């Protein structure tokens, strides 16, 4: 997947030429624990505080230290005491952060529970916590991708040859997907998912989470709107070309509104239930070009206007930080 460094944080509008998609289909397996009935997910309330950022502290030098601390949109800082924080390394200084996934809008967390390793989903909105039925987190380094409202969690082990697993957090049902697959994003209602199907990020599958099937294959894609048709895609023109966000109709196969130029290909996109698009831009600073801040804009395709929704500065000393959409 091609990336370019971030250099500024502004969004403007400009008309530019089009881009195309390719269709296809495939299937994937699904398993469900016997005797498990459908239960409500962690919490589907959408009104209330959300996560701005979270991370781990340090216990002198470079040693990571728990628990996870989360800064919320209402100004509170909470400690996620039941979450596993550290994966031990050969030396204390070489320990790594335990898996922690954040939903696209910052309303839900997914993590491994201390003590028994159960996969847990927590609602930031109301603090409700529930264990996913029958699912124990694998040991080692794992990426967790959380869907809107915490309905699904993608579990991707970093070990070579391990399949991607998509877990229904209400029932514990698991869809097993090929090892090279990597989740890009979900629709706002989590009924569809976009995933890379190759290691280069050039081939994408549109996956139906209800039927566990691939309903379409296409070229590069980033985020599908709730209408199931409008596709927002990051486009980078090599080697020094501009970066864009395009808006394409899957049904028509054509762009449906002017492109948006952005300062970097490495932006995070997520559609909102209202039909607006959240655009998160990273700010890179320091000798190692670490992410030190993020700016979020909300773009309205109907009016062509954007507004600055938030600017997040990561405190110095906060390790393994996460923001909305992190895995």
TrEMBL record:
Signal listed as a keyword: yes
UniProt xrefs under InterPro entries: Quino_amine_DH_bsu, WD40/YVTN_repeat-like_dom_sf
Keywords annotated in UniProt: Signal
Domain of life: Bacteria
Signal peptide location: 1-28
Protein name: Lipoprotein LpqB beta-propeller domain-containing protein
Organism lineage string: Bacteria, Bacillati, Actinomycetota, Actinomycetes, Streptosporangiales
């Amino acid at each position: 997947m091609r990336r370019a460094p971030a250099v500024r944080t502004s969004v403007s509008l400009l008309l530019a030429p089009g881009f195309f998609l390719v269709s296809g289909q495939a299937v994937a397996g699904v398993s469900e624990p016997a005797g498990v009935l459908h239960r409500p997910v962690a919490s589907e309330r959408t009104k209330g505080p959300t996560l701005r950022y979270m991370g781990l502290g340090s216990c002198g030098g470079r040693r990571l230290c728990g628990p996870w601390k989360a800064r919320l949109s209402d100004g509170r800082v909470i400690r996620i005491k039941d979450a596993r924080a550290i994966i031990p390394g050969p030396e204390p200084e070489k320990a790594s952060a335990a898996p922690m996934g954040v939903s696209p809008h910052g309303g839900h967390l997914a993590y491994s529970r201390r003590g028994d390793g159960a996969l847990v989903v927590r609602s930031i909105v109301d603090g409700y916590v529930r264990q996913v039925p029958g699912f124990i987190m694998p040991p080692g380094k794992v990426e967790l991708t959380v869907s809107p409202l915490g309905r699904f969690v993608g579990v991707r082990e970093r070990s070579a040859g391990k399949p991607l697993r998509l877990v229904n957090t209400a029932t514990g049902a698991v869809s097993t997907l090929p090892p090279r697959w990597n989740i890009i994003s979900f629709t706002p209602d989590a009924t569809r998912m976009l995933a890379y199907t190759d290691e280069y990020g050039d081939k994408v599958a549109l996956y139906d989470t209800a039927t566990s099937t691939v309903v379409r294959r296409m070229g590069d894609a980033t985020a599908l709107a709730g209408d199931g048709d409008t596709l927002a895609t990051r486009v980078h023109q090599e080697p020094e070309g501009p970066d864009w966000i395009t808006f394409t109709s899957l049904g028509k196969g054509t762009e449906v509104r002017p492109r948006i130029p952005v300062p970097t290909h490495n932006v995070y996109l997520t559609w909102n239930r209202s039909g607006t698009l959240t655009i998160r831009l990273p700010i890179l600073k320091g000798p190692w070009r670490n992410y030190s801040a993020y700016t979020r804009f909300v773009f309205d395709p109907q009016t062509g206007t954007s507004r600055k929704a938030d600017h997040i500065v990561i405190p110095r000393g906060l390790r393994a930080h996460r923001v909305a959409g992190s895995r």
